[in-house]
Amino acid sequence: MNARVAETSGRVVVLSGGTGSAKFLRGLQKVSSFTVVANVGDNAWFHGLYVCPDIDTVTYTLAGIADSQRGWGIKGDEFKALGQLKLLGAKDTWFNIGDKDMATHLLRTSLLRDGRSLTEATSIIARSLGVRRWTILPSTDQHVETRIMTAEMGEMHLQEFWVRERGRPTPTGVRYMGSRRARMTEEAARSIASAERIVFAPANPITSIMPILSIGGLRDALHKAKARKLAVSPMVGEGSFSGPAAGLMVARGLKPTSEGVARLYKDVVDAIIVDESDRAQADAIGKMGVSCRLTSTLMRTAGDEERLAKVAMEA
Ligand code: FO1
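# FO1 complex -> structure
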Protein backbone atom coordinates (compact mmCIF):
# COMPACT_ATOMS: atom_id res chain seq x y z
CA MET A 1 0.00 0.00 0.00
CA ASN A 2 1.26 3.46 -0.84
CA ALA A 3 2.52 5.40 2.17
CA ARG A 4 0.18 8.26 1.36
CA VAL A 5 -2.92 6.11 1.79
CA ALA A 6 -4.01 6.08 5.41
CA GLU A 7 -4.44 2.76 7.19
CA THR A 8 -8.03 1.60 7.50
CA SER A 9 -9.70 3.69 10.17
CA GLY A 10 -11.55 1.45 12.61
CA ARG A 11 -13.15 -1.78 11.55
CA VAL A 12 -16.40 -0.48 10.23
CA VAL A 13 -16.63 -0.49 6.44
CA VAL A 14 -19.40 1.34 4.63
CA LEU A 15 -20.25 0.61 0.99
CA SER A 16 -21.32 3.99 -0.24
CA GLY A 17 -22.89 5.92 -3.09
CA GLY A 18 -23.52 9.67 -3.16
CA THR A 19 -26.28 11.84 -1.76
CA GLY A 20 -28.24 9.38 0.47
CA SER A 21 -25.06 7.72 1.72
CA ALA A 22 -23.54 11.10 2.61
CA LYS A 23 -26.30 11.89 5.11
CA PHE A 24 -25.83 8.52 6.75
CA LEU A 25 -22.04 9.00 6.89
CA ARG A 26 -22.49 12.44 8.45
CA GLY A 27 -24.41 10.75 11.27
CA LEU A 28 -21.88 7.93 11.52
CA GLN A 29 -19.05 10.49 11.84
CA LYS A 30 -20.39 11.29 15.31
CA VAL A 31 -20.53 7.65 16.33
CA SER A 32 -17.56 5.75 14.91
CA SER A 33 -14.47 5.79 12.78
CA PHE A 34 -14.95 3.95 9.49
CA THR A 35 -13.61 3.22 6.05
CA VAL A 36 -15.73 4.03 3.01
CA VAL A 37 -15.57 1.77 -0.04
CA ALA A 38 -17.05 4.09 -2.64
CA ASN A 39 -18.92 3.56 -5.88
CA VAL A 40 -17.06 4.56 -9.03
CA GLY A 41 -19.76 3.65 -11.58
CA ASP A 42 -20.92 7.26 -11.87
CA ASN A 43 -17.42 8.51 -12.77
CA ALA A 44 -17.25 10.37 -16.07
CA TRP A 45 -15.00 12.57 -18.21
CA PHE A 46 -16.03 16.19 -18.70
CA HIS A 47 -13.85 18.84 -20.40
CA GLY A 48 -10.85 16.50 -20.19
CA LEU A 49 -11.31 16.10 -16.42
CA TYR A 50 -12.02 12.89 -14.53
CA VAL A 51 -15.06 13.54 -12.34
CA CYS A 52 -15.91 11.12 -9.51
CA PRO A 53 -19.22 12.37 -8.07
CA ASP A 54 -19.79 9.74 -5.36
CA ILE A 55 -16.20 9.85 -4.09
CA ASP A 56 -16.37 13.65 -4.04
CA THR A 57 -19.76 13.80 -2.31
CA VAL A 58 -18.39 11.59 0.47
CA THR A 59 -15.11 13.57 0.65
CA TYR A 60 -16.84 16.96 0.82
CA THR A 61 -19.33 15.65 3.39
CA LEU A 62 -16.65 14.26 5.70
CA ALA A 63 -14.65 17.49 5.22
CA GLY A 64 -17.75 19.50 6.24
CA ILE A 65 -17.82 21.52 2.98
CA ALA A 66 -20.58 19.69 1.07
CA ASP A 67 -23.61 21.49 -0.29
CA SER A 68 -26.01 19.31 1.62
CA GLN A 69 -29.11 21.15 0.35
CA ARG A 70 -28.29 20.25 -3.25
CA GLY A 71 -26.73 16.90 -2.37
CA TRP A 72 -23.59 17.34 -4.49
CA GLY A 73 -20.72 19.79 -4.94
CA ILE A 74 -19.24 22.31 -2.50
CA LYS A 75 -21.35 24.78 -0.53
CA GLY A 76 -21.09 28.39 -1.71
CA ASP A 77 -19.38 27.30 -4.94
CA GLU A 78 -19.73 29.44 -8.06
CA PHE A 79 -20.04 28.35 -11.69
CA LYS A 80 -17.96 30.99 -13.47
CA ALA A 81 -15.65 28.56 -15.28
CA LEU A 82 -18.69 26.60 -16.48
CA GLY A 83 -20.29 29.84 -17.70
CA GLN A 84 -17.14 30.62 -19.66
CA LEU A 85 -17.08 27.08 -21.09
CA LYS A 86 -20.67 27.62 -22.27
CA LEU A 87 -19.63 30.92 -23.86
CA LEU A 88 -16.80 29.14 -25.65
CA GLY A 89 -19.26 26.58 -27.02
CA ALA A 90 -17.92 23.61 -25.04
CA LYS A 91 -20.06 20.48 -25.12
CA ASP A 92 -21.57 18.72 -22.10
CA THR A 93 -22.04 21.90 -20.06
CA TRP A 94 -25.32 20.41 -18.75
CA PHE A 95 -23.23 18.81 -15.99
CA ASN A 96 -22.84 21.61 -13.46
CA ILE A 97 -19.26 21.61 -12.24
CA GLY A 98 -18.58 24.39 -9.73
CA ASP A 99 -15.29 26.34 -9.69
CA LYS A 100 -13.95 24.86 -6.44
CA ASP A 101 -15.23 21.42 -7.43
CA MET A 102 -13.37 21.82 -10.73
CA ALA A 103 -10.13 22.25 -8.77
CA THR A 104 -10.68 18.75 -7.34
CA HIS A 105 -11.10 17.30 -10.84
CA LEU A 106 -8.06 19.22 -12.15
CA LEU A 107 -5.85 17.90 -9.35
CA ARG A 108 -7.19 14.34 -9.60
CA THR A 109 -6.74 14.27 -13.39
CA SER A 110 -3.18 15.57 -13.15
CA LEU A 111 -2.33 13.04 -10.41
CA LEU A 112 -3.73 10.23 -12.59
CA ARG A 113 -1.71 11.54 -15.57
CA ASP A 114 1.39 11.46 -13.32
CA GLY A 115 0.77 7.75 -12.79
CA ARG A 116 -0.95 7.87 -9.40
CA SER A 117 -3.86 5.49 -8.81
CA LEU A 118 -7.40 6.69 -8.13
CA THR A 119 -6.92 5.38 -4.57
CA GLU A 120 -3.87 7.60 -4.09
CA ALA A 121 -5.50 10.62 -5.73
CA THR A 122 -8.59 10.18 -3.50
CA SER A 123 -6.42 9.97 -0.40
CA ILE A 124 -4.36 13.04 -1.33
CA ILE A 125 -7.48 15.14 -1.98
CA ALA A 126 -9.27 13.92 1.17
CA ARG A 127 -6.24 14.64 3.39
CA SER A 128 -5.75 18.08 1.86
CA LEU A 129 -9.36 18.83 2.78
CA GLY A 130 -8.74 17.70 6.36
CA VAL A 131 -10.32 14.22 6.19
CA ARG A 132 -7.95 12.18 8.35
CA ARG A 133 -10.03 10.15 10.77
CA TRP A 134 -12.00 8.46 7.99
CA THR A 135 -10.58 6.62 5.01
CA ILE A 136 -12.20 6.88 1.59
CA LEU A 137 -11.32 4.10 -0.84
CA PRO A 138 -12.57 3.77 -4.41
CA SER A 139 -13.87 0.22 -4.88
CA THR A 140 -11.55 -0.16 -7.90
CA ASP A 141 -8.81 1.89 -9.57
CA GLN A 142 -10.15 0.94 -13.00
CA HIS A 143 -12.86 2.77 -14.91
CA VAL A 144 -16.30 1.22 -14.46
CA GLU A 145 -19.31 2.94 -15.96
CA THR A 146 -22.98 2.48 -15.10
CA ARG A 147 -24.88 2.47 -18.40
CA ILE A 148 -28.67 2.78 -18.56
CA MET A 149 -30.65 1.23 -21.41
CA THR A 150 -33.74 3.27 -22.23
CA ALA A 151 -36.83 2.59 -24.35
CA GLU A 152 -36.74 5.94 -26.15
CA MET A 153 -33.06 6.83 -26.50
CA GLY A 154 -31.04 3.62 -26.35
CA GLU A 155 -28.08 3.26 -23.99
CA MET A 156 -26.40 6.12 -22.15
CA HIS A 157 -24.10 6.93 -19.22
CA LEU A 158 -25.86 7.27 -15.86
CA GLN A 159 -25.01 11.00 -15.75
CA GLU A 160 -26.56 11.49 -19.20
CA PHE A 161 -29.67 9.63 -18.03
CA TRP A 162 -30.02 11.36 -14.67
CA VAL A 163 -28.64 14.87 -15.21
CA ARG A 164 -28.87 15.61 -18.95
CA GLU A 165 -32.19 13.77 -19.54
CA ARG A 166 -33.46 14.37 -15.94
CA GLY A 167 -34.31 10.68 -15.57
CA ARG A 168 -37.20 11.01 -18.06
CA PRO A 169 -36.52 8.17 -20.54
CA THR A 170 -38.00 4.82 -19.50
CA PRO A 171 -35.17 2.61 -18.18
CA THR A 172 -35.24 -0.93 -19.56
CA GLY A 173 -31.95 -2.26 -18.21
CA VAL A 174 -28.63 -1.45 -16.58
CA ARG A 175 -25.08 -2.66 -17.14
CA TYR A 176 -21.78 -1.92 -15.42
CA MET A 177 -19.34 -1.49 -18.28
CA GLY A 178 -15.81 -2.59 -17.43
CA SER A 179 -16.75 -4.24 -14.13
CA ARG A 180 -15.79 -7.79 -15.16
CA ARG A 181 -12.26 -6.72 -16.01
CA ALA A 182 -11.96 -4.39 -13.01
CA ARG A 183 -10.41 -5.66 -9.79
CA MET A 184 -11.18 -4.49 -6.30
CA THR A 185 -8.21 -2.53 -4.87
CA GLU A 186 -5.88 -4.15 -2.34
CA GLU A 187 -6.89 -1.49 0.18
CA ALA A 188 -10.60 -2.26 -0.26
CA ALA A 189 -9.89 -6.02 -0.03
CA ARG A 190 -7.92 -5.56 3.18
CA SER A 191 -10.53 -3.35 4.82
CA ILE A 192 -13.35 -5.78 3.95
CA ALA A 193 -11.37 -8.81 5.17
CA SER A 194 -10.56 -7.18 8.52
CA ALA A 195 -13.92 -5.46 9.13
CA GLU A 196 -16.09 -6.25 12.13
CA ARG A 197 -19.13 -4.64 10.54
CA ILE A 198 -19.90 -3.91 6.91
CA VAL A 199 -22.78 -1.55 6.26
CA PHE A 200 -24.43 -0.97 2.88
CA ALA A 201 -25.36 2.73 3.12
CA PRO A 202 -28.92 3.82 2.24
CA ALA A 203 -27.95 4.28 -1.39
CA ASN A 204 -29.55 3.57 -4.74
CA PRO A 205 -29.12 -0.23 -4.99
CA ILE A 206 -28.84 -0.23 -8.80
CA THR A 207 -26.58 2.77 -9.39
CA SER A 208 -24.55 2.87 -6.16
CA ILE A 209 -24.28 -0.55 -4.48
CA MET A 210 -24.59 -3.00 -7.41
CA PRO A 211 -21.74 -1.34 -9.36
CA ILE A 212 -19.54 -1.96 -6.28
CA LEU A 213 -20.72 -5.59 -5.97
CA SER A 214 -20.12 -6.14 -9.71
CA ILE A 215 -16.38 -5.47 -9.40
CA GLY A 216 -14.12 -8.50 -9.72
CA GLY A 217 -13.44 -10.12 -6.35
CA LEU A 218 -15.73 -7.94 -4.28
CA ARG A 219 -18.74 -10.23 -3.88
CA ASP A 220 -16.40 -13.11 -2.96
CA ALA A 221 -14.60 -10.89 -0.45
CA LEU A 222 -17.96 -10.09 1.17
CA HIS A 223 -18.89 -13.78 1.30
CA LYS A 224 -15.58 -14.60 2.99
CA ALA A 225 -15.64 -11.65 5.39
CA LYS A 226 -16.35 -12.57 9.01
CA ALA A 227 -17.96 -9.19 9.64
CA ARG A 228 -21.62 -8.69 10.43
CA LYS A 229 -23.08 -7.40 7.18
CA LEU A 230 -26.12 -5.24 7.07
CA ALA A 231 -27.87 -2.92 4.66
CA VAL A 232 -29.86 0.22 5.34
CA SER A 233 -32.71 0.24 2.83
CA PRO A 234 -33.09 3.55 0.94
CA MET A 235 -36.71 2.69 0.08
CA VAL A 236 -39.83 3.78 1.91
CA GLY A 237 -43.01 2.33 0.46
CA GLU A 238 -42.46 2.19 -3.31
CA GLY A 239 -40.04 5.10 -3.57
CA SER A 240 -36.58 6.21 -2.45
CA PHE A 241 -35.41 9.31 -0.56
CA SER A 242 -33.79 10.68 -3.69
CA GLY A 243 -32.71 9.68 -7.17
CA PRO A 244 -34.01 7.19 -9.72
CA ALA A 245 -33.94 4.02 -7.60
CA ALA A 246 -37.57 2.90 -8.05
CA GLY A 247 -37.67 3.01 -11.88
CA LEU A 248 -34.30 1.29 -12.14
CA MET A 249 -35.34 -1.47 -9.74
CA VAL A 250 -38.44 -2.14 -11.83
CA ALA A 251 -36.19 -2.24 -14.94
CA ARG A 252 -34.17 -4.97 -13.17
CA GLY A 253 -37.37 -6.95 -12.49
CA LEU A 254 -37.45 -6.12 -8.78
CA LYS A 255 -40.16 -4.66 -6.58
CA PRO A 256 -39.22 -1.01 -5.86
CA THR A 257 -39.46 -1.66 -2.13
CA SER A 258 -37.27 -2.71 0.82
CA GLU A 259 -38.33 -6.29 0.05
CA GLY A 260 -36.86 -5.81 -3.45
CA VAL A 261 -33.64 -4.42 -1.93
CA ALA A 262 -33.41 -7.41 0.43
CA ARG A 263 -33.85 -9.78 -2.56
CA LEU A 264 -30.97 -8.05 -4.34
CA TYR A 265 -28.62 -8.24 -1.34
CA LYS A 266 -29.80 -11.49 0.27
CA ASP A 267 -26.66 -13.51 -0.44
CA VAL A 268 -24.33 -10.82 0.95
CA VAL A 269 -26.09 -9.39 4.01
CA ASP A 270 -27.20 -10.85 7.34
CA ALA A 271 -29.68 -8.10 8.13
CA ILE A 272 -31.48 -5.12 6.64
CA ILE A 273 -32.77 -1.99 8.33
CA VAL A 274 -36.21 -1.13 6.97
CA ASP A 275 -38.44 1.84 7.62
CA GLU A 276 -41.02 1.06 10.31
CA SER A 277 -43.86 2.05 7.97
CA ASP A 278 -42.94 -1.00 5.86
CA ARG A 279 -43.41 -3.52 8.67
CA ALA A 280 -45.75 -5.52 6.39
CA GLN A 281 -42.65 -6.56 4.37
CA ALA A 282 -40.76 -7.94 7.38
CA ASP A 283 -42.14 -11.50 7.03
CA ALA A 284 -41.22 -11.81 3.35
CA ILE A 285 -37.73 -10.47 4.11
CA GLY A 286 -37.29 -12.89 7.01
CA LYS A 287 -38.23 -15.79 4.70
CA MET A 288 -35.26 -14.86 2.49
CA GLY A 289 -32.98 -15.55 5.45
CA VAL A 290 -32.30 -11.85 6.03
CA SER A 291 -33.20 -10.52 9.46
CA CYS A 292 -35.25 -7.35 9.36
CA ARG A 293 -34.79 -4.47 11.83
CA LEU A 294 -37.60 -1.89 11.77
CA THR A 295 -36.91 1.72 12.67
CA SER A 296 -37.48 5.17 11.21
CA THR A 297 -35.01 5.53 8.31
CA LEU A 298 -35.93 9.14 7.51
CA MET A 299 -32.97 11.52 7.84
CA ARG A 300 -34.50 14.99 8.03
CA THR A 301 -32.28 16.35 10.83
CA ALA A 302 -28.74 15.82 12.08
CA GLY A 303 -30.33 13.99 15.04
CA ASP A 304 -32.09 11.57 12.63
CA GLU A 305 -28.80 10.89 10.83
CA GLU A 306 -26.97 10.10 14.06
CA ARG A 307 -29.80 7.94 15.41
CA LEU A 308 -29.93 5.83 12.22
CA ALA A 309 -26.14 5.47 12.28
CA LYS A 310 -26.35 4.22 15.88
CA VAL A 311 -29.00 1.66 14.92
CA ALA A 312 -26.73 0.47 12.09
CA MET A 313 -23.87 0.03 14.57
CA GLU A 314 -26.03 -2.07 16.91
CA ALA A 315 -28.36 -4.03 14.61
N1 FO1 B 1 -26.53 16.22 -10.23
C1 FO1 B 1 -27.48 16.90 -10.90
O1 FO1 B 1 -28.67 16.56 -10.78
N2 FO1 B 1 -27.15 17.94 -11.74
C2 FO1 B 1 -25.87 18.35 -11.92
O2 FO1 B 1 -25.61 19.27 -12.69
C3 FO1 B 1 -24.86 17.66 -11.16
C4 FO1 B 1 -23.52 18.04 -11.23
C5 FO1 B 1 -22.58 17.41 -10.40
C6 FO1 B 1 -21.26 17.85 -10.37
C7 FO1 B 1 -20.33 17.23 -9.56
C8 FO1 B 1 -20.73 16.16 -8.76
O3 FO1 B 1 -19.84 15.56 -7.96
C9 FO1 B 1 -22.04 15.70 -8.76
C10 FO1 B 1 -22.98 16.33 -9.58
N3 FO1 B 1 -24.30 15.90 -9.59
C11 FO1 B 1 -25.24 16.58 -10.32
C12 FO1 B 1 -24.71 14.72 -8.83
C13 FO1 B 1 -24.55 13.40 -9.63
O4 FO1 B 1 -25.07 13.49 -10.90
C14 FO1 B 1 -25.30 12.17 -9.08
O5 FO1 B 1 -26.23 12.49 -8.12
C15 FO1 B 1 -24.37 11.12 -8.62
O6 FO1 B 1 -23.46 10.78 -9.60
C16 FO1 B 1 -25.11 9.85 -8.18
O7 FO1 B 1 -24.66 9.52 -6.96
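# post-check
Residues 1-10 have pLDDT under 50 and may be disordered.
Residues 3-314 form a domain with the Rossmann fold fold (CATH 3.40.50.10680).
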